[in-house]
Inverse folding.
């Protein structure tokens, strides 16, 4: 087999739509016989029906063989894991041979063997006869089996090579996972149909191409002929209101069922419209992934993805970076998501060699690229959810894009074309970018972007809607900056929104590491944990980033005034009649608010004023069950302050400070608390042995700190190895401890003066004064202390229940929260700073309580920051016998610099003069 051919396949049938047909179909999934060879040059005698495969293994189909103990796993983002020398491939070319026998039902004649996805180069034999070969891993292919089928037992054999000339087209940022990873069927269906269902001026128009006759009983449409058009009274399809109509197309030999959604995508005055109204894409990029099955994703998992997205106010998906399993698109039609369907094309690794020999611009690859585009469009053309075709991802520029785009425009003028890799937008209908900063997005929103050299192209592009096909890289802790992007998307009509990178962490379940990432299987070339950058953890638990995204994407907004709330409907299409509204003050029962379907101002219920700080929370929940969530599911919420906390001066006045500090025996005692007389450090707190709070500037770098370059700067400064020098311990009415905190080998430092007073509780005021020329942001400004493991639950009043940093934690609300130490940890696959609770008024640790004056940031862990910094996988973190408590004044923002902009200037933490006060009281 010539693996270095540019030809995408041979012996294949014309691509056609994925359809539900009543034609007989045989499911060929299941257990196949399997043998893996390290090279491609082995005899193909295994394809003979009488070949003895007794010493082969069993392998499930669909699956990837490296996830079943055969061969090696590898992850790279951009880099090709073999030399760049198209169309050549390495001699080491894992080759999987598959065999399975099946019995043909009596009376069966003819049929097609259909493979929904084989990674990567597949040759197919039926009863020893070679049917052909195919490439294009994430695309369906069919071979005519008819002439070679025989009654009774048939033997199907498939040889799958991992590497071929086509591998240069499949350099997506993901695990390299060969195998027959999607369904295999033998079907007697041959039908193809292209349904056109549009919506304008309150009515739907329906027609179709292909032979057959189309009926939509619910609409009274019967036996429509190809090419004929009917106008019908319908409810249009939108992601918010995914109304589908059952249609049936009958042919002499079979009939197919499909679900028609009427909708029209258009662009007018540079604005993206659906059904004539502006469309704002609140999207995510979805790779197919399952921690055990890789891209062989079970149906229930696909469904779980769509449900999770819907429940987190996501309304759009980009199928990065290949067409998904066809069932996924059915789910998007049914449950309602706008989809950018992306072609299985990425040649990113050529970027590392200056895009030399890029297949995108190599005419010898033109057929292969066109083949991929055709197979995507033909397969997916009937989905109302699919609103744009994307030519691929990160494939540079070149002539073959024109070939793909030209064909697609002709075949399907109803859908705009997308491609990000060519900023001139020569072949697209929308201007798309990835990771553009807020400032650049703003400029584009104002139509004030830098012009292209080619003025004609510039004028074309300036008339296009803009979207960010990737933004807010959700790697590890973060992303920060979501609210600011959304604000821009909502402000400028040209901005059609975007797609957060990315949906899920691709961590593979691993017996030692918990979840594995690049390098964990000994790959020589890999991109580490760059594959762990999702909004959900590998087991699909939402990360704090997804909760923030839900908040930012809320389709209802609350604007509070004096005793009133204005409810603003931000849906693109729906009104508010599917929602119920409730208001409550913590501790009191919820009261129902009557909100008009179009929104408007309503009075907040009168609540008896309490003594302490009180907030009103208003929530919008589903009034009834929806297909994607049950009644009561919260869609949006808002809070407003009802009663402010007592002011600080009142508080100070309330407690009269007394000088109960007594020196003796090497200690300075304050009731059952005590300080070391030498160092002035707190050693006992209300009877608990503690290691006293002291100034700390370090945090375990986040992925954003790390890849964005801050960690390197911080380490160069030595912020991870601060020294503490005590200059004076002075005892008067207060205990004053004067210190200088600084790393070795620099003259930068901080003067930290701790002033303790005692009145039954302990009050601490820390004055911090930087010395020297601090240029870069610092990780953190706070105190670190540790205590014995007597504490296992923390109760606090402040933002919660989840973590929050200066530019994240939008999902956190003011309230009284409680969590165990374990629950306070966010289990990022790659350990890093996490779990910080913000704007804490007070926190109770069982034996004692800490109060802010007025607030502080709180993190409690069963391991130290150094241990967290050193850990590379979750199992590296082992709970010790102490609780490490961090009481913080400030943190550096999170940003999204692992790929994209860092924290916005407002969220940067600069070394500055500061005073920080806290109280410690016995429980
Ligand atoms: C961008 C890729 O399109 C995406 O697949 C992913 O790799 C992401 O980066 C990083 O996680 S391309 C990058 C050069 C901006």
């Amino acid at each position: 087999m010539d693996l270095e051919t540019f030809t995408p396949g041979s012996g294949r049938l014309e691509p056609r739509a994925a359809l539900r047909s009543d034609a007989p179909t045989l499911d060929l999934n299941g257990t196949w016989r399997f043998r893996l060879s390290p090279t491609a040059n082995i005899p193909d005698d295994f394809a003979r029906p009488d070949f003895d495969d007794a010493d082969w293994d069993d392998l499930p189909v669909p699956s990837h063989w490296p996830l079943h103990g055969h061969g090696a796993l590898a992850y790279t983002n951009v880099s090709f894991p073999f030399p760049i020398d198209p169309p050549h491939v390495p001699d080491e070319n894992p080759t999987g041979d598959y065999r399975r026998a099946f019995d043909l039902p009596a009376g069966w004649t003819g049929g097609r063997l259909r493979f929904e996805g084989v990674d990567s180069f597949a040759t197919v034999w039926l009863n020893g006869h070679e049917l052909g070969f195919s490439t294009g891993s994430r695309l369906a292919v069919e071979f005519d089996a008819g002439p070679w089928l025989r009654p009774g037992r048939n033997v199907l054999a498939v040889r799958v090579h991992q590497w071929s000339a086509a591998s240069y087209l499949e350099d997506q940022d993901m695990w390299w996972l060969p195998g027959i990873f999607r369904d295999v069927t033998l079907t007697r269906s041959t039908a193809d149909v292209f349904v056109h269902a549009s919506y304008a001026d309150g009515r739907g128009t329906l027609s179709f191409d292909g032979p057959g006759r189309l009926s939509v009983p619910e609409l009274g449409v019967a036996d429509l002929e190809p090419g004929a058009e009917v106008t019908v009274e319908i409810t249009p399809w939108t992601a918010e209101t995914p109304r589908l109509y059952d249609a049936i197309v009958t042919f002499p030999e079979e009939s197919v069922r499909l679900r028609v959604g009427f909708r029209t995508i258009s662009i007018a005055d540079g604005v993206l419209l659906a059904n004539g109204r502006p469309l704002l894409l609140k999207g995510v990029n979805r790779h197919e992934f399952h921690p055990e099955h890789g891209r062989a994703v079970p149906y229930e998992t696909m469904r779980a993805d769509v449900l999770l997205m819907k429940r987190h106010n996501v309304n759009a998906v980009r199928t990065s970076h290949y067409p998904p399993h066809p069932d996924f698109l059915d789910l998007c039609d049914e449950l309602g998501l706008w989809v950018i369907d992306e072609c299985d094309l990425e040649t990113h690794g050529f970027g590392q060699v200056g895009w030399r020999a890029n297949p995108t611009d190599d005419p010898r690859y033109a057929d292969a690229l066109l083949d991929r585009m055709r197979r995507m469009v033909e397969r997916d053309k009937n989905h109302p959810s699919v609103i744009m075709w994307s030519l691929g991802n990160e494939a540079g520029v070149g002539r073959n894009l024109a070939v793909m785009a030209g064909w697609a425009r002709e075949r399907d003028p109803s859908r705009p074309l997308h491609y990000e890799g060519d900023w001139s937008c020569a072949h697209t209908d929308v201007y798309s970018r990835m990771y553009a900063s807020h400032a650049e997005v703003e400029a584009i929103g104002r139509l004030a972007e830098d012009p292209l050299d080619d003025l004609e192209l510039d004028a074309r592009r300036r008339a296009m809607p803009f979207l960010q096909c990737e933004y807010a890289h959700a790697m590890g802790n973060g992303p920060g900056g979501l609210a600011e992007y959304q604000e821009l998307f909502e402000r400028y009509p040209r901005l059609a929104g975007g797609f957060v990178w990315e949906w899920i962490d691709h961590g593979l379940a691993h017996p030692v590491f918990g979840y594995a990432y690049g390098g964990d299987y000994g790959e020589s070339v890999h991109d580490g944990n760059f594959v762990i950058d999702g909004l959900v953890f590998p087991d699909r638990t939402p990360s704090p980033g997804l909760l923030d995204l839900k908040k930012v994407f809320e389709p209802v907004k609350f604007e509070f005034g004096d005793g009133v709330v204005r409810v603003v409907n931000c849906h693109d299409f729906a009104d508010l009649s599917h929602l119920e509204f409730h208001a409550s003050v913590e501790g009191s029962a919820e009261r129902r608010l009557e909100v008009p379907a179009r929104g408007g101002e309503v009075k907040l219920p009168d609540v008896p004023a309490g003594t302490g700080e009180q907030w009103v929370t208003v929530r919008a929940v589903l009034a009834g069950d929806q297909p994607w969530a049950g009644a009561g599911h919260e869609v949006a919420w808002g809070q407003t302050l009802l009663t402010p906390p007592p002011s600080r001066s009142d508080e100070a006045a309330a407690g009269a400070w007394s000088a109960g500090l007594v020196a003796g025996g090497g200690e300075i005692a304050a009731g059952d608390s005590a300080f070391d007389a030498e160092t002035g450090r707190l050693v006992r707190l209300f009877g608990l042995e503690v290691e006293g709070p002291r100034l700390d500037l370090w945090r375990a770098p986040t992925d954003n700190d790390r890849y964005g370059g801050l960690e390197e700067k911080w380490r160069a400064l030595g912020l991870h190895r601060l020294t503490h020098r005590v200059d004076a311990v002075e005892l008067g009415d207060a205990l004053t401890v004067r210190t200088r905190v600084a790393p070795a080998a620099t003259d930068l430092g901080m003067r930290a003066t701790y002033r303790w007073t005692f009145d039954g509780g302990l009050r601490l005021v820390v004055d911090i004064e930087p010395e020297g020329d601090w240029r870069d942001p610092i990780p953190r400004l706070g105190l670190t202390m540790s205590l014995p493991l007597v504490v296992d639950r923390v109760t606090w009043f402040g933002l919660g229940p989840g973590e929050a940093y200066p530019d994240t934690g939008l999902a956190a609300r003011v309230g009284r929260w409680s969590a165990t130490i374990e629950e306070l940890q966010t289990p990022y696959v790659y350990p890093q700073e996490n779990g910080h609770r913000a704007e804490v008024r007070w926190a109770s640790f069982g034996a004692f309580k800490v109060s802010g004056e007025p607030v502080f940031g709180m993190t409690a862990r069963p391991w130290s920051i150094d241990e967290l910094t050193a850990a590379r996988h979750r199992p590296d973190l082992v709970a010790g016998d102490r609780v490490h408590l961090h009481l913080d004044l400030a943190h550096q923002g999170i940003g999204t610099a692992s790929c994209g902009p860092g924290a916005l200037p407002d969220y940067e933490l600069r070394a500055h003069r500061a005073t920080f006060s806290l109280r410690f009281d016995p429980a």
Q: What stands out?
A: Residues 77, 173, 321, 393-394, 434-435, 470, 473, 501, 530, 533, 899 surround IPT (CB under 6 Å). The chain is about 10% helix and 35% strand.
